[in-house]
Amino acid sequence: MKTLLVTGGAGFIGSNFIRYMLDKYTDYRILNLDVLTYAGNLENLKGIEEGKNYRFIKANISDRNAVEKIFEEENIDYVVNFAAESHVDRSIEDPEIFIKTNVMGTQVLLDVVKKNWMLGKDETGYPIYREGVKYIQVSTDEVYGALGKEGMFKETTPLAPNSPYSASKASADMLVRAYNETFKLPMNVTRCSNNYGPYQFPEKLIPLMIANCLNDKQLPVYGDGMQIRDWLHVKDHCAAIDTVLHKGISGQVYNVGGNNEKANIEIVKLIISTLGKSEDLIKYVKDRLGHDRRYAIDNTKITTELGWKPSYTFEQGMKETIEWYLNNKDWWENIISGEYKKYYKKMYEEK
Ligand code: NAD
Ligand code: DAU
């Protein structure tokens, strides 16, 4: 039995990943370490029972004692680090927590992992680790900065993060790289494009637009709406992380993209037409500061070297996603009407 520590497993991608892994590997034990920020929601894991295969631990990745304790109690083989502050707009308003969680938290994880997986040192002083252990850092295409009309991000593209969020993610990537170079820690970094699908917090473009459309509220489109993102269904992302965890060559970075470049306004109009609403709901608002114009991922390395490829077309993925939000109104209405309401209201007052 392998034991996998998932951090940030009560968030959007982490909770989808836990479901995916519990379904696929019935003999794995999954530990979910999450501090439950505004974005962490145990409702995302509804139906998953605590027991032999699953345990939830409320803790902060920046809390060294708490992380150490988990390693003392459990025989962990793999760590997949999703825990992060993930929203770009919030990082523009208040960057500090992004550095604390995304950078310092990652460093704590790396230190504890290194200490606990190390068996001894070789004659040159490099650590020797237990067989079969690995650390995965879930990163983002935003670390590469922005593209013009042409080109795609490759794993070799220099890092040029533009927002406090992406700068914090790039810093974490550099730390993971350093732990591999200096301490030979078995690791991979994955850098993926914009995810969408069930359980995405309704501050992100797609769930926000679906919720607002259903409530006949304005749809705030930043700037001219012609910014381009590559969209990846969260289930395809989960399969990619599974592939990298089991087949990735230690020390390597893998880009993960869905081959689905879309302008924001196209997506907003697709949601409006699918829900039978009027384009009058669209409101062009002040642009995001430092707004990256275009992202595009070249996923040749993971597809050719590891055999992963996305299975969703954007049309199918969006159809299923919109249906999910229609069938799970309670889930997002609960968020919009709770503590999050204050931020949600502030967002409207400012736009
Ligand atoms: P999310 O905001 O939905 O979830 C983040 C989770 O991390 C929450 O459950 C939160 O409670 C937890 N968390 C935050 N700070 C923590 C801390 N200090 N200790 C423990 N837990 C903490 O984020 P998401 O969209 O699921 O993203 C997950 C990861 O994937 C992030 O690292 C993000 O940078 C990366 N990523 C996301 C996307 C995307 O499109 N959503 C794309 C590329 C990369
Ligand atoms: O590219 C990967 C990244 O994708 C992840 O690393 C981040 O964690 C994740 O939040 C996401 O970042 P974005 O900034 O691209 O996602 P967001 O949903 O905030 O915005 C998507 C695009 O839509 C972006 O160009 C800004 C625009 N937008 C967003 C919101 C919330 C609007 O036009 N209006 C809005 O109200």
Write up what this structure looks like.
Pfam families: GDP_Man_Dehyd. Helix content is 42%, strand content 18%. The chain is of the alpha/beta class. The protein has a domain of 239 residues: NAD(P)-binding Rossmann-like Domain (Rossmann fold, 3-Layer(aba) Sandwich). A seven-stranded parallel sheet has the order 3-2-1-4-7-8-12, sandwiched between helices. The chain has a three-stranded mixed sheet with strand order 9-11-13. The protein is globular, with a radius of gyration of 20 Å. The model has no long low-confidence stretch (mean pLDDT 96). The structure holds nicotinamide-adenine-dinucleotide and 2'deoxy-thymidine-5'-diphospho-alpha-D-glucose (DAU). Nicotinamide-adenine-dinucleotide (NAD) binds next to helix 1, helix 4, strand 7 and strand 9.
Helical proportion, percent range? 40-55%
Give me the CATH fold name of the domain at 3-196 and 232-257 and 293-311.
Answer: Rossmann fold
The CATH homologous superfamily of the domain at 3-196 and 232-257 and 293-311 is named NAD(P)-binding Rossmann-like Domain
- Described by the principal axes of the CA atoms, the overall outline is globular
Series of H and E elements: EHEEHEHHEEEHEEHEEHEEHEHHHH
- Rg, nearest Å: 20 Å
| Average pLDDT number | 96
Number of beta strands: 14
Strand content: 15-25%
Main pleated sheet: 7 strands, parallel
> How many angstroms separate the termini?
51 Å
CATH class type of the domain at 3-196 and 232-257 and 293-311? Alpha Beta
Tell me which CATH architecture of the domain at 3-196 and 232-257 and 293-311 applies here.
3-Layer(aba) Sandwich
Query: What topology, given as strand order, has the largest sheet?
Result: 3-2-1-4-7-8-12
Find the structural class using helix and strand composition.
Answer: alpha/beta
Q: Could you list the spans in which at least 5 consecutive residues all have pLDDT below 50? A: none
Unique bound compounds: nicotinamide-adenine-dinucleotide, 2'deoxy-thymidine-5'-diphospho-alpha-D-glucose
Helix count, DSSP H or I runs of 4 or more residues: 12
